[in-house]
Write a structure and sequence with these properties.
elongated; alpha+beta; Immunoglobulin-like; 17% helix; four-stranded antiparallel beta sheet; 41% strand
């Protein structure tokens, strides 16, 4: 009886090992998917950008920049964007396989409230259809591409301002709350093989002074 239990234990251990081995994440996971098909791994970062300057402070309130009572000098007020930086490299630099050019076809931005802003209003996710071309890397080389993507557009700024001034949600001084923007980029290479990769950035939104 003891011998049978030992044999069953050994068989169980072998099966567990095989299952864990087969369930491991593929190359580039969890940051990118589809790398096994395309042969290319893509890493990405996003840096918030507003009025040609890097800033993590998203302004949701347009102010009057001129203190004179009768003067009208409105603060510049537009979409808050971000700089997307992508680096692509071959999974196997020694492969004879010719990697194809990658084409991002769309991306989605989801917004997660930070732990210190749990009572803040939700911000609706944003999906954009935009083509971004990433030339295929070769050998040990790395292809780097930059593009501009949306962070918080005017529609979501207006929604945030309306929500935070309604009294239904919490906020700090100057209607300030903190969020994380989670990006998912999806596309295909020139051979029709799908891929995706992710990036994220923290930011704060509220009433900021962007007057000159």
């Amino acid at each position: 009886m003891r011998k049978n239990k030992f044999i069953l234990f050994v068989v169980y251990c072998l099966l567990s090992t095989i299952c864990l081995w087969g369930c491991g994440g593929g190359a580039g996971s969890p940051g990118s998917e589809g790398t096994e098909d395309t042969g290319v791994e893509v890493d990405a970062t996003v840096t918030p950008l507003y009025l040609n300057e890097n800033t993590y402070s998203v302004d949701a309130f347009q102010s009057d920049c001129d203190p004179e009572p009768d003067a009208v000098d409105p603060e510049i007020f537009t979409d808050h964007s971000a700089t997307l930086t992508m680096t692509a490299r071959l999974i196997n630099p020694n492969t004879t396989f010719q990697a194809g050019t990658l084409y991002v076809e769309k991306y989605t931005v989801q917004f997660r409230r930070s732990s210190d802003s749990i009572g803040a209003p939700p911000i609706q996710s944003d999906t954009r259809y935009d083509t971004i071309v990433i030339p295929a890397p070769a050998g040990t080389g790395v292809t780097t591409v930059e593009d501009t993507v949306i962070l918080v557009d005017l529609i979501r700024k207006d929604q945030y301002r309306s929500n935070v001034t309604s009294g239904q949600y919490n906020s700090g001084l100057a209607y300030l709350n903190n969020y994380t923007a989670l990006y998912t980029f999806e596309g295909k290479n020139e051979y029709g093989e799908k891929f995706s990769f992710k990036a994220q950035t923290d930011f704060q939104i509220g009433n900021f002074d962007y007057c000159d």
